[in-house]
What we know:
The complex is a heterodimer of chains A (467) and B (240).
Chain A (H helix, E strand, L loop, with lengths): L6 H10 L8 E2 L6 H11 L3 H16 L21 E2 L13 H10 L1 H8 L2 E6 L2 E7 L1 H5 L3 E4 H7 L1 H7 L10 H9 L4 E5 L9 E6 L6 E2 L2 E6 L4 E9 L7 E3 L2 E6 L4 E8 L5 E11 L4 E8 L4 E4 L2 E4 L5 E10 L4 E10 L5 E10 L4 E10 L6 E11 L5 E10 L4 E11 L2 H8 L5 H17 L4 H16 L4
Parallel strand pairs in A: 3-7, 6-9, 7-10, 8-11, 9-12, 10-13, 11-14, 12-14, 13-15, 14-16, 14-17, 15-18, 16-19, 17-19, 18-20, 19-21, 20-22, 21-23, 22-24
Antiparallel strand pairs in A: 1-2, 3-4, 5-6
Helix pairs in contact in A: 2-3, 3-9, 10-11, 11-12
Chain B lengths: L1 E10 L2 E11 L4 E5 L6 H9 L5 E9 L2 E2 L5 H7 L1 E4 L6 E5 H12 L5 H14 L10 E2 L5 H15 L3 E5 L7 H15 L4 E5 L13 E6 L2 E6 L1 H10 L6
Parallel strand pairs in B: 3-10, 3-11, 6-9, 9-10
Antiparallel strand pairs in B: 1-2, 1-4, 4-5, 7-8, 11-12
Amino acid sequence: MPTKVDVNVAYKEKYGFSKPEKYVFKTRKGLDEGVVKEISFQKEEPEWMKDFRIRAYEIFKAKKQPTWGADLSKVNYDSIYYYLKPIQKKVQSWEDLPPEIRDTYDKIGIPEAEKKYLGGVGAQYDSEVIYHSLKKDLEKKGVIFLDTDTALKKYPEFFKEYFARAIPPADNKLAALNSAVWSGGSFIYVPPGVKVEVPLQAYFRINAASMGQFERTLIIVDEGAEVHYVEGCTAPIYTTDSLHAAVVEIFVKRGARCRYTTIQNWSKNVFNLVTKRAMVEEDAFMEWIDGNLGSQISMKYPSVFLRGRGARGDILSVAFAGAGQHQDVGGKAYHLAPDTSSQIISKSISKDGGRSSYRGLLKVIKGAKGVKANVRCDALILDEKSRSDTYPTMQIDEENVQVGHEASVSKIGEDQLFYLMSRGLSENDATSMIVNGFIEPIVKELPLEYALELNRLIQLEMIGAVG
Amino acid sequence: MLEIRDLHVSSDNKEILKGVSLKINPGEIHVLMGPNGSGKSSLSLALMGHPRYKITSGKIILDRKDITVLTPDKRAKAGLFLAMQYPVAVPGVSVTNFLRSSLRNLKANVAPAEFVKITKEKMAALKIDESFATRSINDGFSGGEKKKMEVLQLSVLQPKYAVLDETDSGLDVDALKLVAEGIKKTSGPKIGILLITHYQRILKYIKPDFVHILIDGKIVKSGGHKLAERIEEEGYANKS
Lengths: 467, 240
């Protein structure tokens, strides 16, 4: 008989462990203007940022909880800790971290990955980035890769020009919340013509219970430059809920190229409500690759604003919804200039009563002639209890366009399972093989290490499904 | 020996096989013929353990092991193979990946270099283009390509007993020769084969030891290869 592995146990061993909560500063539970000011004070940041936070907090209070997507009625803003500073000062060597934090990243495998194939690493633990590195050759070429707090102090001019310009606080309630209490995240600047050949990676870890993590990422890829940024995220399994509400703003200048890969594997007690947007100029190319495996509820729709002629945006996503999970994810493409093109490919898998929804927007404004856009969403449902929905919206105000939309929903076929099993594969292996085949068009876009990681994580989720 | 003992099979609550018995010894080639709807494919799927075909009574014994209630993967591990009449596509799963997983489950872990060598040889013998190794299984394959892929699996996996369900249909003469060659080469002296076919033409290349006629869920007549020729000439009427 195949041995049944509880996926929660497997997650717990690898990622779901928690370390004793130690910190040098922690705000009281819940949120008010005092907490917002306290965060700003702790960070010793410029006055304008403090004012920005307070204004954003007012917007957050005024805005109603969004009701158009996943059910957010369980999100209780009063039961969360908004800021926890784990150590006094960020370090540049893993050895300098407290042993429990270092052990966390060793277990997840970040220092090893850094040695093997990364150009730089940022590691955020609860509210602060506690480790940061960038290879010397990239530094010499003028590449900046820092935590956002440090970057704000060192390079205020970038913040004056770009910060909150793609996603203003008033964009939505969660963006307002992030703007009020943001902490950590990555700042990247790639100078004109510089091609960063190896990925830069950030790793986000929530350790404390009832924690809110609000990182803020700002990426500027200057003309003709290239970068691939990767983020991973995990958290311990707690009985209380945690909140992750990030804001990611990206500016891809003329002829530049940016690829942003996410492998989101939060524990099942995390609400993951994220706003991500890229401004894409003439002949530039923005690519979102979004893998959503964890969290209780995710709402995330990475967007591309194609602002210059010939700009291109791809949004490729994979969502996996297991027991108690709702992945409400998708993508948005705004065609604001002629000859722009976009491709949205979404693949979702639902099992054990999980629910996955594709929610997307394709917009073409009048005058954006010669647009090519394609949306494809495929859902695979593994059992009768699970659910998949599609909410595609199209607003096309220009006639001279080529737009395609395809959607499919399929159940794992008895005949496919039989075929693979008749060749000696167990039901588990056969199901995994079918699922891996289903997401292959997206996995093949990833660098090998991440493709293997994503396949392995899906495998882990699958083991709990049958057997 | 693969022994089918008084097998009764139902699908959708309808009895399809009404007591089929067969004994296939290693090295023997048995041919099963019969009109459409007589239950030939149902027999092949029930033998391999398809969940839609319920064995209501009777037994399947493979080399003294009772495999009647085993799942398909366990039957495969016991040494049974089914070349399907309608192999399904599995998008995104390459032929190579699939074959390697099968081989690992059924035989042993073959070193990658060795595996590539074996599959290359077998593909060349069946005149399957190398590009198929990286294509998704059966995805967009023509009827003939699918049949060749089944024979490729047969020859890579080397089972003890193989059921070939109309592996000859939909093939042109050249492909038929290749497929028949493939089956013969694989078979060697020890494999036991149950070949289900509508036509006698493949029997030019593969000489059966026994021919059985299945009508309405029962084997009504068994004989030597001459029986197949008579069927070709006279049809199934008056054979019961």
